[in-house]
Amino acid sequence: MADIITDGKTIVLEVPTIADLAAPTDTELGSGVELHPIMTPDGLVGFEPETADVDNSSLDSTFDTRLAGRASFSGTMLRLKKQDTAPDTVYDTLVRSYRTHIVVRRGIDVETAITSTDEVEVYPVECGEVRNLPPEANTTQRYEVPVKITSQPELRAVVASGV
Hints:
The chain is mainly beta. The chain is 6% helix and 40% strand. The chain is globular.
């Protein structure tokens, strides 16, 4: 068994329409916009769920016990590099109140096209206000787009054939 190196193995797409979050089709995903080529290496921020504790101890308990409570995400955002093309489609699309889906595929070379049976994460989101980051020496012009998860994401979706 070997470890999976993450470099070059994460695809991030912006996909406006997905009919079934648990089984997005390869056709739906193929119509999405690739974000990973213009994302910073640390640009997929906050897409790790947190699970709250539910105390299920009793008055007569001598040990505190817990059950899994609600899952949530906080601070979810995309950190991207501004492009010098006109128009800068991603910058112009990911604006406040825009609703879309962020789809993430991990662990497979980015050169490998998404196909049916691939596992992906699907996040229904609404974009917040774009935040242009201050200039720094020796870096690209960057911006952040906060994304609010609007309904329960599908963290273990399997791509279906869009025949």
